[in-house]
Every structure is written in structure tokens, then in C-alpha cells.
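#lab-general

N.A. 3:47 PM
ok so I finally got the sequence cleaned up, no stray characters, all 290 residues accounted for. can someone with queue access submit it? mine expired

B.Y. 3:52 PM
send it over

N.A. 3:53 PM
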Amino acid sequence: MGVIFLRFLGVTLTVFSNYDNDDDVKTDTYGTITIRNENIEKETELVSLPFSASENATTNEVNCALVPIYEDNGKGGANYSECSPRILSGRGAFMSGIARCIGVFDPWMKFGGEEGIVKTRYASYQKVVDRLRIITIRAKLTALDLYNLDYTKPVYIAQFGQIFAIYSVETGENDICDCQLLKLKVDGVVAATYYLRLDGKNEDSQWVAEADGINGTEYAITSNGTPYIVDYDSRLYVDLYEEDGDLYLSISAPENTGTEEINYNPVILGIQENDAVRRQVAVSQKAKSA
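B.Y. 4:20 PM
back already:
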């Protein structure tokens, strides 16, 4: 079970985050967020996550998660040994010539490290709340105003000449509400850092198709933006689709009836909110055997 909790150290708030792993997992997944603020309560458990990390191992030339569920009983056999629930990143792979769905504990699933959850998901949050100041104002908000209130959008208060984030709203009589606001930096709202991953990897990919064109490939897409297909070779069959709440990019090639290898134009995937963030898949296809 993973736990994220807060601890007050002097005037510094540190958010500790880690997976509560069982004895089989030795991977260091620890991460912290440091916030200089003395107005937040000293210590409280923020959220409890019902899963553990995993070790990875290579089996049949495929790197995947190692989740031992059996132990030697000392009599030449094995006994079932229940492990803690695991969180994994799913992807497709070929093992012994058979297409399988495998699970991997990727570096970006750790809390710490340059690719970890704290650096990639909470950098903007830390900038916003570092040395934060909270003010309380009274505002007239109707029931419709409250219904349409978007806590994710900052507000500008002309009397202060500052931009604020809405922290809480407490309703009162005659539509008068007490609103707690977080003062944001003068230079405006911290821009979101967008990411786009193919099968959990923050990098481009390459796929080689068989000559008969029967096989295809599929990538699991993760992003905090809205991915879309920027460009692809018209000779390929490319689709970006959603299934059970997950996003996938599928690529297939037609039959190559020639004797020369084909190098297609890459499949390029982007994010609508930040078109500078892109990933591409280089596609080539084997020649038909003579």
C-alpha cells in the first residue's frame, strides 16, 4: 500500500510519497515535495494508495514485472504465497513468437527520480504553493454562480491587482460567501508541463512490419493533454482510439509484394494544448522473400 503524508518541519512542509512494498520489492521509489509554508497543519495522511511497486526481470528476451506468487515448500514443490496488489503499466510484446499483454513497472511510476511522479506531475503544483499566501474575501455568489464555479481556473481581483486560485468557498445568508483564495505569483499562472508517452516511455519508437502485412502494432498512450494524429504515411493504416477509458495508437502495414524493404514516413503524434510536444514512430517493412 502506498502512502502520501505531510509533515511540518520548522517553516517547511515536506510531502513524503512512497509505495509500501512487500519484502520482495527492493526498488527505491521514494519521492518528496518541499513547500515553504507555516500555515498548513503539521501532519496529516493525505491519501493511501492500495498497491505496491514491482521489480522488473527479463524473461525470453522480454523485460517485464516480476511478481512472485509461489515459494519453495522444501519438498520439491511450491506453495502459493499471496503478494501485495501491484500497479503496472500494460503493453504488448511477443514472447516465444506469441503476442502477449505484459505488465512493467516503468521508471515514470516511481515517486522520485528525474522521470518520477513528483518531477513530472507535481512540479507546477510545488511552484504554485511555495511560500503561498491565503486571503479571505466576501463575495456575492448565486446558486448558479456556485454551480458553474471552476476551481481549476484562476481569478483576477482588481482591488488587489493580483491573480488568485480558489481554495474554498463557504456559503452564507443572502448569497454572501466567504472565499479563501491562494495568491499566485505576479508573473501569472504556472504553465502546465505537458507529457506524451508511448507505452510508458517518454521517447520516440520504431516498428518493423513483416512483409505479409498481417501483423500490426499497438501503443498505449498516456498524456495530460489531448493527443491527436499529426501526420502519417497514407500507405499505412493508422488509428487513435479509446477503449475502456484507455487511449491506444494502432499501426498496420499492407502487404509488401516487392523485393525491397520499405521505409514509410513516420507516424507523428502530438498534443492539441501544446503542439511542440510530439512523439513519432518510425515504420519500416521487410521485403518479400524471393
